[in-house]
Amino acid sequence: MNSKKGVIEVQFNWVFILIAGVLILLFFGSIVLKLKSNSDTTISNTILTNMQTIMAGAEVSSNTVTPISIPDTKIEVSCDSISVGSITSDITKNKIVFAPEIIEGRTMLTWSLPWGFPYHISNFLYMTTPNFKYIIVDSTKGKEIYYKLPQGLTKQLVDKNSLSDLSNSGHKLAFVFFNDPEPDQASLPYFLENMKDNEVIAINIDSGNNKISFYQYKKSLKNFEYFSDAPYLGDEMIIGAMFSGDAKNYICNLEKALKKMEIVSMVYAERTEELQRIFHSNPSCFYTITPFEIDYSLNNIDAIIDSKRDLEIRNENLQKASCPTLY
Amino acid sequence: MKICKKLHAQHYIKMKNKKAQIKMFETIAVLLIFFVLVGFGLIFYMKFMRTSIEDTGEHQFDLKAIQTAQLVSFLPELQCTSPTSANIVIDDCFDVLKVKALANISKEPAYERINNEYYFDSFGYSKIYIENIYPYSPENWIVYERTLPNKKFQSSTKVPVSLYYPVTNSYSFGVLTVEVYG
Amino acid sequence: MIGKKSQAEIVGLVIIVLLITVGLLFFVRFVVLKPNSDAKRDYVDSELASNMINVLLKTTTDCKKSTMSDLFRDCAGFNRIDCDDDGNRGDSREKIEEVIEEIFNNTLEKWEKPYHFKAYIVRKYNTGENTIVERSYGKCSGNVDRISRTYVIPTDMESLMLTLDICS
After folding, report:
1. Which end of chain B is flanked by fewer CB atoms within 10 Å, N or C?
2. C103 closest CB neighbour out of B134, B161, B170
3. Over chain C, what is the mean pLDDT?
4. How confident is the model at residue B84 (pLDDT cuts 50, 70, 90)?
5. Where are the alpha helices (DSSP H) in chain C?
């Protein structure tokens, strides 16, 4: 009887230790897990705050190329939001950011350019990584774009006849064609067949019609496949299309840019009306708000381009007549 | 003798039981104290974390105030442009005709949609106005205003700016005030 | 045996107390006594200092439509500007003082921001300096935290320096 009691006591001790141990382990385990998820959220938040600061900086100062060290996480960029892990932050309506859908790696390159049509409207922010290689097909416009791109970027100017001689450098590729030849008519290097479809994109610039066409490489076709096209206003938008590589993202940013253009033009129209009132008795200083009163939408790109030319001429005439200029 | 042995054994068992009970109580007491200490630690940590989060909140608000002031200083709707190229903007300079135009637009109910959608997205709850300091003029222009009824924080940033008058081709000394509410 | 056991327990307790104390000390040193950085004040003061001088120099005055920069240059050079056309040249210094008083009165002084502003000529061939205008408000001397901006205007004869200290 005595020895039985002893056995029960010893077993109870072990059961007690087991329960207490499990409870203690669970308690500390849950604390560790909670702290880890907190720390992940903090890191994501820090990255997003830094990205927002970079975007705000780019909005106010242009032509700056900044390489930024980032933790080895996936940053997803869309036209109106940017996400790291489960945390998402909005990109405001006035920020125009051209970037590939996913930014990975240890370094991110940010660059900004002022965009005016003809007056200053906004600064475009471009984001990419050195993992992307921009292959520009040699032409007059091609050279212009190539030399506009910053030094830190992985870029190459290639003759249209040497495209098939390109060698695999381990980069994701973005080809920029200028209608001669079009992407689906070019002779492409063989190593593209060993790459994933989403790692190779191409855009074709039709300067005559102010049109950009978007293509994606299809292994099954061993060629580029046409997706869609969109208009552009200025070289800054061609560079935007190169960096985003995706028609949907590009069009969304183009719409944002047109919205901003409408607002800035509204201010210029109001300013011109004031000048009209001041100089109504001076025939050499002629002001009209007609060039500002257009529809700033994607369907009206031709009228926007015509209005730009009209404004440039009117501004030059006012300058010649020593009158305050329109912009 | 047998009875004596039995009594002794019973006494021994009773003693052992008491000892085990004391040990158990001791263990429970140690565990209790341990958890109380951990609890205190957690309360202390939470309090510290709350202060730290509040500090971060204030820091974020300051950052937002700076960003808003910076954003307004470089707003194409207000900035002076170079006569040679419209894409070259002049730092710390606002075109008075543009300022007046934006102030008019922000007042007009027809443009409420733009103010609500577009500028609210950038400036949030804030008031942005420009005053003319020299040569003195009582005129000041409110280019954006959206107040927050129950504001916890308020930050006011003043930035000296040149005000350019295109008609007279002259510059006056102005101050841009950005009040951000949070 | 019992004495040794209790001694060992005391040593254990002392070690635990020491570890907790060291931990607390680290916590206090690196977390509680963390230096408080005021990013907003630094940014605002530095913008204020640089913009004040930039904007001031660009400002057009009512003296022959000259800018403050023209007036400073004239004051440091030949003193040829006659603001009120009374035949007496050398009005630039007076005008500078008048404008600076109006601007600083309605900005930094109204906002109760301590500052020290000085515009002086640095002679090229000797070490002396000639103050054109000096103005200050609040406590802005000695060991006070400050953000300083200096602007140099080259003139025909000498260099003109403008310094503005914004103090906290």
Report:
1. N
2. B134
3. 86
4. low
5. 2-27, 39-58, 68-76, 92-106
- Give the other-Cβ count within 10 Å of C22's Cβ: 10
- Pairwise CA distance, residues A124 & A113, whole Å: 5
Q: Are A118 and A88 in contact (CB under 8 A)?
A: no
Where does chain A show beta strands of DSSP type E? Answer: 65-69, 75-77, 81-84, 87-90, 96-98, 102-103, 107-116, 120-128, 132-137, 154-158, 172-177, 200-206, 211-218, 223-231
Query: Contact, A125 vs A96, CB < 8 A?
Result: yes
Chain A meets chain C (3+ C-beta pairs below 8 A): no
Residues of A in contact with B63 (CB under 8 A): 49, 53
Q: How far apart are CA C7 and CA C64, in angstroms?
A: 94
Tell whether pTM > 0.90.
no
Task: Report the alpha-carbon distance of residue C162 to residue C132 in Å, rounded.
Answer: 10
Determine if the peptide bond prior to A231 is cis (ω within 30°): no
Least confident window among A154-163, A282-291, B150-159, C30-39: C30-39
- Asked whether residue A286 carries a pLDDT value surpassing 70, the answer given is yes
The pLDDT, as a whole number, for residue C37 is 58
Single out the residue of C61, C103, A267, C47 nearest to residue B114, CA to CA: A267
* A 53-72: CB under 8 A from B: 53, 56, 59-61
**CA distance linking residue A78 with residue C60, whole number of Å:** 47
* Identity of the residue numbered C2: I
Q: Which residue of C16, C28, C40 is the best one to mutate when testing the B interface, meaning the one whose CB has the most B CBs within 10 A?
A: C40
Q: How far apart are the C-alpha atoms of C157 and C73, rounded to whole Å? A: 10
Residue-wise pLDDT tens digits, A50-107: 888 777 777 776 666 778 888 878 889 998 899 988 888 888 788 899 999 998 888 8
Q: Is C21 on the interface with B (CB under 8 A)?
A: no
Residue B50 tokens, joined: 């709350």
- Taking alpha carbons only, the member of A183, A185, A188 closest to residue A203 is A183
Q: C1 pLDDT exceeds 70?
A: no
> Is there a contact between A263 and B118 if contact means CB atoms under 8 Å apart?
yes
- In this prediction, residues A106-124 reach a mean pLDDT of 90
For C106-126, what is the mean pLDDT?
Answer: 88
Pairing, β A200-206 against β A172-177: parallel
Q: Which residues of A touch B27 (CB under 8 A)?
A: 16
Does B73 lie at the interface with A, CB-CB under 8 angstroms? yes
Residues 6 or more apart whose CB falls under 8 angstroms from that of B96 comprise B163, B164, B165, B166
CB contact under 8 Å between A266 and B79, yes or no, is no
Residues of C in contact with B63 (CB under 8 A): 39-40
